[in-house]
Design a protein that fits this description.
The protein is an alpha/beta fold and 459 residues long. The protein contains twelve helices and 23 strands. It has three domains: 41 residues; 208 residues, Rossmann fold (3-Layer(aba) Sandwich); 169 residues, 2-Layer Sandwich (Ribosomal Protein S5, domain 2), CATH 3.30.230. The chain binds thymidine-5'-diphosphate and magnesium ion.
Length: 459
């Protein structure tokens, strides 16, 4: 018997090594190497290749014809947008997110819509029994008879079901519960997940079936175990949001057939997920009126703009080192902005605890949020409210300068549409708008500033 060669994989970066080490030599993460018996899978098969030189003919670039790929609508505009316009035949899509965020619900709703259109759909679940799925389904609504369920964790059985049924769309919920018999590892381990994804990839490409894989996410934000899953699939969608709040954001992190960073917004209700076509309106719900520390900024994610509330709280500290927290935005960026405020505006923030929060459960890291964060901190520090009809955006540099942001017109249009009357923005952007003569007819007052000191004159 051939001795099986053992390989170790890093759960974080997918790097292979021949011996176990505490630290991954590639990404330097600790305790991430996991054993994967690689050769055993192919044991018994001849290693000799069957490919002959004559068999391989590269195609001339010009001779390749491309038809516009056919997209199938999911019946949910928000999901279609994130997918880049609908489901591409033969694509492999990973839907990641925390447990309980609503992945199964979203995909079951998609199955319902597809089956209503007469598409044959298979939903293979390793997590729930058929009864449990049906109970959830009953809350979601009417189903047609071209939807088939399978409660199974053995990948070979799932494969057989696909062969037998020949569906157009398959859901595998979740990758962590499925296992391949001839691999000597627990379900959810790196080698299992790798192999199962490879099997699904083959099925998708060979039979032109679109497959959606559900993957749970670890605390660090990776799909449990293998990052390598992300390279293997065509699309990676992450479902974000605070499980205790009702907003859910679906974000395209990778998309071979469209743009990334596109978001879809949903609300979780009793009868499943409801689309939110106008996020601005949604984000403004519950915004306090006339309170210091609350500012409205305007963000862009993918092709979408929306207004969003930024909150800050500055209060006297009882610790030697003041506390700083940042929810929904980048912690280091917030610290940097606080340093800029302290130095350039001369505010003694070091004796204050400062908490910053982007309301709505969304995580926004674009630089255009900087000025909104600064304004919120200043407003809370001084105990002075910012006008409720004002939107503030701009990037802040280290010397306190306010720098231009991308797609400024789009932000202003969104602010005006949401009913705001004044907008503080980078001077460079304002000059460009005035030069181009755009936005002449909108009744929003535009104010350009060059640095954060000028901000104090307006708030
Ligand atoms: P689920 O789709 O099971 O999450 P995941 O597959 O990502 O683990 O979502 C479960 C949560 O959603 C659960 O806490 C209950 C809630 N939910 C509703 O609020 N309304 C509904 O109609 C459904 C089906 C679920
Ligand atoms: Mg689930």
């Amino acid at each position: 018997m051939a001795k099986s060669k053992v390989i170790f994989y890093c759960k974080e970066c997918g790097n292979e090594t021949s011996k176990w080490q505490g630290q991954c030599p590639a990404c330097k993460a600790w305790n991430t190497l996991e054993e994967a018996p690689s050769e055993r899978i192919v044991a018994g098969k001849s290693v000799k290749t069957s490919v002959k030189v004559g068999d391989v003919t590269p195609t001339r670039y010009k001779d390749i014809t491309t038809e516009k790929e056919v997209r199938t609508g999911t019946g949910m505009a928000e999901l279609d947008r994130v997918l880049g316009g609908g489901i591409v035949a033969g694509s492999l899509v990973l839907v990641g997110g925390d447990p309980g965020i609503g992945k199964s619900t979203l995909l079951l709703q998609m199955c319902r819509n597809l089956s209503k259109e007469g598409k044959k759909v298979l939903y293979a679940s390793g997590e729930e029994s058929l009864k449990q799925i049906k109970m959830r389904g009953d809350r979601i609504g009417e189903f047609s008879d071209s939807l088939f369920l399978l409660s199974e964790t053995n990948m070979t059985a799932v494969e057989m079901a696909i062969e037998k049924l020949e569906p157009e769309v398959v859901i595998v919920d979740s990758i962590q519960t499925m296992y391949e018999e001839n691999i000597d590892a627990a379900p959810g381990s790196v080698s299992q997940v790798r192999e199962i994804t490879a099997v699904l990839l083959r099925i998708a490409k060979k039979n032109s079936i679109s497959i959606f894989i559900v993957g749970h996410v670890t605390k660090e934000g990776n799909v449990a175990g293998p990052r390598m899953l992300e390279h293997m699939v065509d699309n990676v969608l992450y479902f974000e949001g605070d499980p205790s709040a009702s907003y859910r954001i679906l974000r395209a992190v990778k998309n071979r057939f469209g743009s990334t960073n596109e978001i879809g917004v949903f609300e979780m209700r009793e009868m499943g997920l409801v689309e939110v076509p106008n996020p601005s309106e949604y984000m403004m719900q519950g915004k306090p009126v006339g309170e210091p520390g609350s500012v409205v900024a305007c963000a862009i994610e993918g092709t979408r703009s929306f207004v969003i509330e930024v909150q800050a709280l500055a209060c006297n500290t009882y610790f030697n080192v003041p506390r700083r927290t940042a929810a929904g935005t980048d912690y280091n960026r917030v610290n940097l902005l606080l340093a800029v405020v302290e130095k350039r505006l001369g505010m003694q923030l070091s004796s204050y605890d400062i908490y910053v929060n982007v309301a709505g459960g969304l995580r926004i890291t674009e630089p255009a949020m900087d000025l909104g964060i600064v304004a919120a901190v200043v407003s809370s520090f001084k105990g002075k409210a910012i006008p409720d009809d004002m939107v503030i955006f701009g990037e802040v540099g280290l010397v306190g300068e306010v720098r231009a942001v991308t797609q400024c017109e789009k932000r202003v249009v969104e602010a005006a549409k949401s009913g705001f009357k004044q907008c503080i923005m980078p001077m460079t952007n304002l000059e460009n708008i005035q030069k181009s003569g755009q936005l002449k007819n909108s009744d929003i007052k535009l104010v350009g500033i060059r640095n954060i000191r000028e901000l104090l004159n307006h708030i």
